[in-house]
């Protein structure tokens, strides 16, 4: 079916498609974009899967309403990433999917997680039944018969050993559950995601080499991941699809280039110029986000984009903790979980996700940054290859992320 016809049939009820006089755009036969809305211009094959995903895709971690899903579909977005521990995201997607006629044109990814507050990732030792129950819960909440992709989520997030995380990556119960879910028609593809900070590259490389995974999703942006291109090439050689996330390098600020280049577009184009990357997932919270981000679809990376990124690095290179880096891990004698704390601070200060950031931080207990307030030997500073003032950043994070007042 032609894309225009699909959109007309699928999302005639999508919020935001009203034309003057109260007539829906789809009912009038107006192609999306003709009434001024930007649309997706490029769809890319996701490895050897049958999925051709929109190059700009929808991260539903802060989904405000079902209508946002319908708006995105109306503008050509066809890949949606959610999880049971993303608040009411799956429930809202379920409301939207109840109004979609052609499910096979929309790709939904969720995670092997509980519905508890983030992080609800199923741990090593979870039973086969628990993995199956996680997917069944997602399907019920989203009014779906199957997931296109299910993720082992956030591998390398916890400061456990490489061997321990490899156990979660290749857990026999998880693999047996995945096989059963595929045979039952409830899951099409297995994937793994990582934003580090522990062993991002070796864990994703192991996933690619294992032959069990169809897709990897990785933190990847212009702030340099020197070892990651090797993994991306290995994935491409083996037909494993690659999705990028954390593409805005902290999202400190947009529209920085006085020449007029839009920072978000520049950051997206930098990622999408890599042929191994099928698409990127970006959190979309507002209609303005959706319209801004979709404008970057199918557009080339330019010299003006590079200048915008260089300007961003000049402004924030000495204050942005590189997602997935992990150079500082293990440098603190007090066991402070440096990289994750600074990531939670990024959620708090830059993403506007204060509640999630504070909840995540509260779960760290003995590995929080409380010890940094009285530390007189900040070895973490010397461990950062980017010369960040890690100790001061951790103290500021602790003050932001604690529920009680800190002197």
How is this structure best described in words?
This protein has 16 helices and twelve strands. With 407 residues, the chain is α/β, with parallel strands linked by helices. The protein folds into two domains: 39-310, NADP-dependent oxidoreductase domain (TIM Barrel, Alpha-Beta Barrel); 338-401, no CATH class. The chain has an eight-stranded parallel barrel, surrounded by five helices. A two-stranded antiparallel ribbon has the order 1-2. Helix 8 (200-210) runs parallel beside helix 9.
Write the layout of secondary structure elements.
Layout: H1 3-10, E1 18-19, E2 23-24, H2 25-28, E3 43-45, E4 52-54, E5 56-59, H3 66-74, E6 79-81, H4 89-97, E7 107-111, H5 128-142, E8 147-152, H6 162-169, H7 172-183, E9 187-194, H8 200-210, E10 215-219, H9 228-237, E11 241-245, H10 263-272, E12 279-283, H11 287-294, H12 303-316, H13 338-349, H14 354-362, H15 379-383, H16 390-401
Parallel strand pairs: 5-6, 5-12, 6-7, 7-8, 8-9, 9-10, 10-11, 11-12
Antiparallel strand pairs: 1-2, 3-4
Helix pairs in contact: 3-4, 4-5, 5-7, 6-8, 8-9, 10-12, 13-14, 13-16
């Amino acid at each position: 079916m032609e894309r225009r016809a699909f959109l007309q049939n699928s999302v005639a009820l999508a919020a935001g498609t009203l034309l003057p006089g109260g007539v829906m755009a789809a009912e009038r036969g107006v192609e999306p974009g003709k009434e001024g809305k930007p649309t997706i211009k490029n769809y890319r094959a996701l490895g050897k899967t049958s999925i051709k995903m929109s190059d700009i895709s929808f991260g539903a971690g802060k989904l405000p309403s079902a209508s946002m899903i319908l708006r995105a579909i109306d503008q050509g977005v066809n890949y949606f990433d959610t999880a049971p521990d993303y608040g009411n995201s799956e429930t809202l997607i379920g409301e939207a999917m109840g109004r979609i006629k052609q499910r096979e044109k929309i790709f939904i990814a969720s995670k092997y997680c509980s519905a508890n507050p983030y992080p609800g990732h199923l741990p090593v030792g979870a039973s086969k039944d628990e993995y199956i129950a996680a997917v069944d819960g997602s399907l019920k909440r989203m009014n779906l018969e199957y997931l296109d992709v299910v993720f082992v989520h956030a591998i390398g997030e916890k400061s456990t050993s490489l061997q321990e995380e490899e156990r979660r990556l290749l857990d026999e119960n998880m693999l047996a559950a995945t096989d059963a879910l595929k045979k039952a028609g409830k899951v099409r593809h297995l994937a793994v995601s990582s934003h580090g900070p522990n062993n991002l590259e070796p864990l994703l490389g192991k996933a690619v080499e294992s032959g069990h995974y169809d897709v990897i999703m990785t933190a990847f942006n212009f702030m340099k991941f020197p070892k990651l291109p090797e993994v991306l090439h290995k994935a491409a050689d083996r037909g494993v699809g690659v999705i990028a996330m954390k593409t805005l390098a902290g999202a400190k600020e947009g529209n920085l280039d006085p020449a007029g280049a839009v920072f978000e577009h520049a950051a997206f184009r930098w990622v999408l110029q890599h042929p191994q990357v099928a698409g990127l997932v970006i959190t979309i919270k507002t209609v303005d986000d959706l319209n801004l981000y979709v404008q970057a679809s199918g557009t080339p990376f330019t010299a003006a984009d590079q200048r915008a990124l260089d300007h961003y690095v000049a402004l924030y290179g000495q204050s942005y903790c590189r997602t997935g880096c992990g150079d500082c891990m293990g440098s603190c004698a007090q066991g402070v979980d440096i990289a994750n704390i600074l990531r939670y601070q990024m959620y708090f200060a830059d993403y506007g996700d204060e509640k999630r950031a504070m909840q995540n931080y509260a779960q760290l207990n003995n590995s929080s940054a409380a010890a940094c307030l009285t530390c007189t030997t900040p070895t973490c500073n010397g461990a950062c290859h980017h010369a960040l003032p890690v100790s001061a950043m951790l103290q500021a994070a602790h003050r932001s992320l604690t529920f009680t007042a800190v002197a």
